[in-house]
Design brief:
Blueprint (H helix, E strand, L loop, with lengths): L4 E3 L9 H5 L5 E2 L8 E2 L11 H5 L5 E3 L18 H10 L13 H12 L11 E6 L1 H14 L7 H8 L11 E7 L6 H15 L6 E4 L1 H7 L3 H6 L7 E9 L23
Antiparallel strand pairs: 1-4, 2-3, 5-6, 6-8, 7-8
Helix pairs in contact: 4-7
């Protein structure tokens, strides 16, 4: 058997569930008794852990992780569809924040949630940088503003900055962003999925959030900003989020959005 995937014959129930769910078709019938065999695809294992998570007998170990090491699933904790729909509908981009940093325990809870965000092929390429200090985020916003002063289309942003209003990071005391090295082929996708999870979770922790679009654009081209962030030439930023405690920004209604444009292709 593969060193990465093992099946304990004494605990295997022979249900065949692992054969059905493995995306790489690693398990095959034909092992000892009803115990599945590990086929030649074992080297293609992406360590997704689905086999370990689904095995009723707890018989499978993958990459050294067995059933005893995993958190048990509890469907009773899942929100209803209507509850989730309300979370999505009532989520708003917050652009007015209190100046104090976010309590560390809330940052820790968000980062732990991002740990389990899905990534393409379970490659887990994301690295995270957190700036949780209002003076630091203000300095970063200033670097971005200075970098676009020569652009005609940036005049409203620069004028606002000169008048004491931060149009770039909105005075947010905290900024988090996802980045990968240059070998990742899915930086934008993986980062966006994870950051949107944080975006939806933020209000459940009493936080406001807003995507940091100006920051994302500037971080790709502004060498002074990249140096301030201690980013190397190979580092790619995929998505970023402004965070903070909302400062009297409350919404009593869900803004109107038109029906989506949908078409169904006939078989």
């Amino acid at each position: 058997m593969s060193q990465n995937v093992r099946v304990d014959a004494a605990q295997c129930t022979g249900c065949g569930r692992c054969l059905e769910i493995c995306p790489m078709r690693i398990f095959q019938p034909g092992g000892q008794g009803s115990v599945p065999a590990i086929g030649p695809n074992a080297e293609k294992c992406i360590a997704c852990g689905h086999c370990v998570a689904a095995c009723p007998g707890g018989a499978i170990t993958a990459s050294g992780i067995g059933a005893a090491s995993l958190q048990k699933a509890d469907i009773s904790l899942l929100p209803t569809y209507d509850q989730f729909a309300a979370l999505v509908a009532q989520r708003r981009s917050i652009r007015k924040f209190k100046s104090q940093p976010i309590p560390q325990e809330k940052i820790d809870r968000l980062i732990d949630l991002l740990r389990i965000a899905p990534t393409a092929k379970n490659l887990l390429p994301l690295q995270w940088t957190v700036v949780n200090n209002p003076e630091s985020t203000h300095r970063l916003a200033g670097i971005i503003v200075d970098g676009i002063r020569s652009r005609d289309d940036a005049k409203p942003i620069i004028d606002a900055w000169e008048q004491g209003y931060d149009w770039v990071l909105r005075g947010a005391p905290c900024l988090i962003f996802a980045h990968t090295d240059e070998t990742s082929n899915w930086t934008a996708f993986d980062s966006s999925i994870a950051v949107e999870i944080a975006d939806l979770a933020a209000p459940l922790l009493g936080l406001g959030a807003c995507w940091a679009g100006y920051f994302i654009s500037a971080a790709g081209v502004n060498p002074i900003l990249r140096s301030a962030l201690s980013l190397g030439a190979a580092d790619r930023i995929g998505a970023a989020l402004m965070l903070g405690i909302p400062d009297d920004e409350t919404y009593l209604r869900v803004p109107y959005r038109p029906e989506p444009a949908v078409r169904y292709l006939e078989p």
